[in-house]
Structure formats: C-alpha cells, structure tokens
Amino acid sequence: ECRLGGSAKRSYSITSCASVFQVNVRDALNQAMDEELERDERVFLLGEEVAQYDGAYKVSRGLWKKYGDKRIIDTPITEMGFAGIAVGAAFAGLRPICEFMTWNFSMQAIDQVINSAAKTYYMSAGFQTVPIVFRGPNGSSAGVAAQHSQCFAAWYGHCPGLKVVSPWNSEDARGLLKAAIRDDNPVVFLENEMMYGVPFELSEEMMHKDFVIPIGKAKVERQGTHITLVSHSRCVGFCLDAAAVLAKEGVECEVVNLRTIRPLDVDTIEASVMKTGNLVTVEGGWPQYGVGAEICARIMEGPAFNYLDAPAVRVTGVDIPMPYAKILEDHSVPQIKDIIFSVKKVLNM
Amino acid sequence: MQNMLTLISNVFRLGNASKNVGAQAVSELLIGLSKYVDLTAPPAPATPRQPPLPPGTRMVVSARSFADFTPQASFPIKKCDLHRLEEGPSDEALLTREQGLQYYRTMQTVRRMELKADQLYKQKIIRGFCHLYDGQEACAMGIEAGINPTDHLITAYRAHGYTFTRGVAVREILAELTGRRGGVAKGKGGSMHMYAKNFYGGNGIVGAQVPLGAGVALACQYQGNNQVCVTLYGDGAANQGQIFESFNMAALWKLPCIFICENNKFGMGTSVERSSASTDYYKRGDYIPGLKVDGMDVLCVREAIRFAADYCRAGKGPIVMELETYRYHGHSMSDPGVSYRTREEIQEVRTKNDPISMLKERMLSNNMSSVEELKEIDLEIRKVIEDAAQYAISDPEPSLDELCNHIYARDPPMEVRGTNPWVKLKSVS
C-alpha cells in the first residue's frame, strides 16, 4: 500500500506502491534530527541560521517551528564560543548537535572539538562523557573557492577520542546521524553539500525511527573480483559510476563505502583486498597525510599486503588550494575518468 | 581597623617575647577590642550562656572551654566596586564559629597541600606542569561557601584549590600529581585535568574553559534546575576573544553564568598593565554588570558570590566578578616568580594581606577560636597532608593495561594501534 513515511513533508514524493521512499540526503538528515529531537529531550541543535532561517542549506527546515527556541538555537557568528558552549552543555548532561555552516569554519573552533571534546573522556579516566555531534557540509562544493572547499576528514580522523563519520547517500545520512546522536562520544559528522539534493531510495526498514547504522563499519556497495575501490562521501558515487563503465570492459570493481573515517573498518578493506588483490583509494581531500595514505599504510602493515598484485594507489584532490574558475575547479577534484585511469594502470591494462 | 591591628600585634609581640600569650593579655585584648567590634551575639541555642558577672569584675580567662568562644560575629568588609549595578553585596558579613573554623581548615589545607606539591616537585616526584594556588585560597573557599554543592564550577589550570573545595580528597589530588593509579583521574590527567561531580576541571588551554562554563550554564537553564555555573579565568585569559563570545551569548540568552576573573596581577610574566588596554576586568563584560571584589578576604568573596548567584538564579542573566588576589609562587614550578616582581612585593602581601592570616586574626580577636585550637587544626592538617603525600609517593603507577582505556564511552572493547604494527593494544570504555 502506498504511504508517506516519517513526518508529512512536501519535500519528498511517494513513488511506487512497494514500500520504498525517494528521499534526498537533506531530508534524510532532517528527518533523522527530527526523530532524535522527539525521542530524547536532551537533544538540541545550535548553530548559525539553524532556527529561523531553516538552516543555511535548509537541512534543519521546519525544526524550529516544531520545537521552538529552547531546542533549536540560532547562534551569533562565533564558532569558538558556540562550539565551546555546546561542549559544556554536553558535559552537563545535554546532547547537543552543533552545526558548523561548513567545516571550514570549524577551524575557528577546532580547539574546542579536539582539546575540550575529544580528549576529555580519556583525561578524566572515564569520568566525564561528551555526547556531542558536530555536523555540517565538508569538502568541495561548486565555485566557492579555496577557503570554503577544504576536506577535513584527515584532520579530524587523526585524533583519538573522536568518531568521524562521512555518509554518502540518504541511507548513510539517516542511519549514521541517528547513531551519532545516540552515541555518548563526540562525533564529527562530515556531510557534503553537493549530495544534499540527491535522491536515493529508502526501504521501509530504513524509514523506521530506530534505524541506525553502526559507526565504525564500512559497507560493500558493489561486489567485484578484480580490484577494490575504497572511498567515502560523494566519491563513492563516482566509484560506482566508474565501476559501471569498467564493467563494460570486463573489469569488476568492488566498491567499499567507508561510512566511518574513525574508527576505520580495516577488516572490511582487508577482506576485500585479499579477495581482489588490487586497491585504489578515492577521496576528495588532499593527498598528503590523507585518508588514502592511512588506508595504504594499514594495508602495507597487515595481512592483505601479501595478496596485492600491484602497489595500492590513491586518487585524491589535487594538492592545491581550490581555484575558482570552473575549468580549474573541475580539474582539482577526482573525476570518474581519473578513477578509471588509475584502475587500468594498477591492473596494467 | 588600624587600632585593632595594633592591639593584636601588641599582644603577639608580647607573646613572641614570652613565648606564651598569657590569659591576662588575651582578656585585656578582648576588652580593648570590644571598643571596635561587636562582641555580643544574638542568642545561639547551641551555646550555653554564662551567668552575668557583677560589674567591675575583671574577666579572668583561665581554663578555656569551647563554650567560652563567641558563636558568631559580624565583620565589616570592603565595599565592592560596581559596574552597571545599583547595589552590590552587603558590606558586612556574618561569620559563625563553625564557618570560621571550616574556612580556616579548608584554606590551610589548600595552602599546605600546595606547599607539599612544591616540595614533591623539587624532589622530582611531581613532573610536568604544576601551577600552585597558594595565596589565592580565599577565592576558592569564598566561592564554595557562597554556592551550593549542586552548583557547577569550571576553572583553568591553577586548579588544585578548586579540586579540593569541590570535594576531591587531598590524597587523590597529590596522587594525581605524582601520576599514580589512586589519583582522581587514575594518573591519566595530571595537574590540569582533574574532574569531580559538578566540577569540570582543570583546563589547559587558556580561555577555553569560559565557553565551556557558559555551556554548563546553558544546560542549567535548559534543565530548569535553578543551578548556576561559576566560570573562572585569569587576568591573562581575560583578553581572549572566546571570552567575549561567551559574554555575548550568555547575555543574549540570559545564561546563569557567573564569570569570575581571578586577577593575580600577572599572566605568567606579564603584568596586567602590559597585557591589557583596560585592567578593569570587572567592567570588561561591558553590557554585563560587574563587581570588583577583595579576593584576599574570604568573607568578601563569599558575600559577593552569594550576591552574584542570587542575581543569576533570579533569571537576570550573567554577571562578571573580578577577584583581586595574589599568588605567592611563580606562574608554575619552572618560574621563580621574581623576575617580573620584587621579593618585597611578595613579602608585603604575605605579611599584610594573607587570606589565612586575615581570617585567623579576625577569629582570634573576636574570641571565636584560640591559638591552641587553630594550632591543633594545623597539626591535624599537617597529618592529612603527610599521609596524602605518603600515599602519593607509595601508590603504584597505573597498570600498562590502562594505557588505551577510556578512548570512547560505553562502547565495546576495541583494538588500538601501538607504537609499531605488531603491537595491538586493547581499549575498554
């Protein structure tokens, strides 16, 4: 029977009469927050424009109207201050969701994320928990230039005490955000602005209010035999597109969606590499000291190395600040052709 | 005040000469002081009344019993400078004997604990950072006296005093400084990272604790529990941008946050004149009302914090307090503390303005205690500190199994990479 899942919203449509829902990433995030706000009164959202503006990217649309000033709080443009306030609120028993309008602005508050949030449970020997979620769009967008395009997966992924999550599709966004909000640890939740408007199918099970995806577990999005592609966030889609093209040439790629940057699901990656014998990592961030670098190092140090038929390589963003002009920007980020090229090189095709 | 001090110092000089302050000298002192201080007390049910003496009887105080002590007295205290406030705290403070003894005991314990930490550091049993609080005891004690245990407090790295007043035993503090498993943070935190119920440390990054404190206050408001958060920072931190960000949000949202600047005149080696275009720290909240308080007088601090807490609990929003205080030690144990200030200055504060001495003089001059009783308390404290130091030295260091624990809360056990790929360590919550 046909029905609208979740709360009644104009933003997604009913499709077929099988219980499958077309939900874009923005709405998946919105619904996840709505349900968690309803479920636990200690949860609240703060950030710039999250309340009356409905969110700079409309991710929090409708929430202020429903929950009011107490639980959806517009902050002044003072990241260090409001991130610290959010962490302090978490110390004292609340469960804040602290939105950074983009993760670029988190640099103003990075001390609060690392020194006040990430390290506190350890420094206090387990006395003081910090159940906070920091979320916002991460990485490159379109035409926003150098200061607004950085990927922070490697920076935050570097730090013990944090969980760092990077969803790709709506299922990821929904399940991981709910898991993050329910987690008693500080979670860095890296969204992607270019994905907000992209619709995906969600099953009835995924629309259940207790649908959570475990943090720290990668997902094999596509089974393959010849080579493993490991990626996170938007690049997962590029990997799948590249895999579709390569399949026509008889190359079957296994595509692993990391979902979580920290803790890294090395077991899933290793199992895949031990199956395929080849590895290419794909990310939007800079190459040096990046996510791909970590994955390659782990493969070198683990049992999967002996199964490699060729060195593992990384496909990354170009090692430059993001330029503005479209032609330059397009050539600063990994494209599908770059993935295909790298796969063929690794496979010596 | 001056006359009172002269009277008292005369007695002590006499005492120094004869090594024994005679009962007669004390009684004469009391009679002399009665000119200046109200020694009569309202009826206190717990204390048995003495029958009135015939007029002209000279008070002979021979066998002293606790029943002889004055149960409470009222003291004039320094008026606070006010910023955007019509009225401030009372300029008179009532002190009961019990309170006086409790404040004395607490301040003396903090003093002795810090001096013991100094000793242990010089013996290299404590290492790393050690920022000592001696001199500033009246701040921690006054604040604790004026708030409830259910209120909240957060401070910066000069935190041992507050760790004690917020309920952590001396032995757990010293054992944390020596890095042993019996430390309040199991040896994993150290001097700047001690935590307790409603006490959020101990924070190493200058100024970062201020937004955190405002956040705790937000939680109090959100939960509607009528609690306040005392958020401390130093004169060195007072120029931090994030403090002004916190002021802004606290005022906008009327958070029940008491921002307190402990102004000990130096941010490490930099005097306030050299660091701050405005040294009126109690005014730096601008649109937030402020109070300037004598931080060496525990009663002054207590009255001020009571005033501030009432203000916040009434929903009027945040308030800023500046406590004028002084630290005897340098910034940390690696700073002798005499390159940017003179020994004379330090000595002057010790003799004229020491918070513990001030309280002691008040109590003695008002017959609220005796030299013997206070000495006895000192001896008890010495024993507590010695025992704690013994514990801190002999307690074993944390087990290596502890190394990777407490990364995540309430998570299943996980593996942590060691220093090389073959070392796989275990982490439990």
What is the secondary structure topology, with strand pairs?
The complex is a heterodimer of chains A (349) and B (429).
Chain A (H helix, E strand, L loop, with lengths): L19 E5 H15 L3 E5 L15 H5 L4 E3 L4 H13 L3 E5 L10 H9 L1 H4 L9 E5 L15 H5 L5 E3 L4 H13 L4 E5 L7 E5 L15 E4 L4 E5 L2 H14 L5 E5 L2 E3 L3 H11 L2 E4 L8 H11 L11 E3 L10 H5 L5 H11 L3
Parallel strand pairs in A: 2-3, 2-4, 4-5, 5-7, 6-7, 10-11, 10-13, 13-14
Antiparallel strand pairs in A: 1-8, 6-12, 9-11
Chain B lengths: L1 H17 L4 H11 L38 E5 L4 E3 L8 E5 H26 L14 H10 L5 E3 L5 H6 L4 H8 L31 H15 L5 E6 L6 H13 L3 E7 L2 E2 L2 E2 H4 L14 E5 L3 H16 L5 E6 L18 H10 L2 H11 L5 H24 L19 E4 L6 E4 L2
Parallel strand pairs in B: 4-5, 5-6, 6-10, 9-10
Antiparallel strand pairs in B: 1-3, 2-9, 7-8, 11-12
Report on the structure:
- Chain B: It catalyses: N(6)-[(R)-lipoyl]-L-lysyl-[protein] + pyruvate + H(+) = N(6)-[(R)-S(8)-acetyldihydrolipoyl]-L-lysyl-[protein] + CO2.
- Chain B: This is Pyruvate dehydrogenase E1 component subunit alpha.
- Chain B: Its cofactor is thiamine diphosphate; Mg(2+).
- Chain B: One of its GO terms (molecular function) is metal ion binding.
- Chain B: Residues 106-399 form the Dehydrogenase E1 component domain.
- The complex is a heterodimer of chains A (349) and B (429).
- With 349 residues, chain A is α/β, with parallel strands linked by helices.
- In chain A, 33% of the residues lie in helices and 17% in strands.
- Chain A has helices at residues 25-39, 63-67, 79-91, 110-118, 120-123, 153-157, 170-182, 234-247, 266-276, 291-301, 326-330, 336-346; strands at 20-24, 43-47, 72-74, 95-99, 133-137, 163-165, 187-191, 199-203, 219-222, 227-231, 253-257, 260-262, 279-282, 313-315.
- In chain A, the strands form three sheets. Chain A has a seven-stranded mixed β-sheet with strand order 3-2-4-5-7-6-12, sandwiched between helices. A five-stranded mixed β-sheet of chain A has the order 9-11-10-13-14, with helices on both faces.
- In chain A, α7 (170-182) links the parallel β6 (163-165) and β7.
- In chain A, α1 (25-39) runs parallel beside α7 and α8 packs across α12.
- The model of chain A is unreliable at 1-12 (pLDDT under 50).
- Chain B is α/β, with parallel strands linked by helices.
- Chain B folds into two domains: 74-398, Thiamin diphosphate (ThDP)-binding fold, Pyr/PP domains (Rossmann fold); 400-428, no CATH class.
- Chain B contains 13 helices and twelve strands.
- Chain B has helices at residues 2-18, 23-33, 97-122, 137-146, 160-165, 170-177, 209-223, 241-253, 272-275, 298-313, 343-352, 355-365, 371-394; strands at 72-76, 81-83, 92-96, 152-154, 229-234, 257-263, 266-267, 270-271, 290-294, 319-324, 414-417, 424-427.
- In chain B, strands 2-9-10-6-5-4 form a six-stranded mixed β-sheet, sandwiched between helices.
- In chain B, α8 links the parallel β5 (229-234) and β6.
- In chain B, α1 runs antiparallel to α2 (23-33) and α3 runs antiparallel to α12 (355-365).
- Chain B is globular and about 80 Å long.
- The relative contact order of chain B is 0.14.
- Mean pLDDT of chain B is 91; it is low at 15-21 and 41-49.
- Classes of the chains: A alpha/beta (349), B alpha/beta (429).
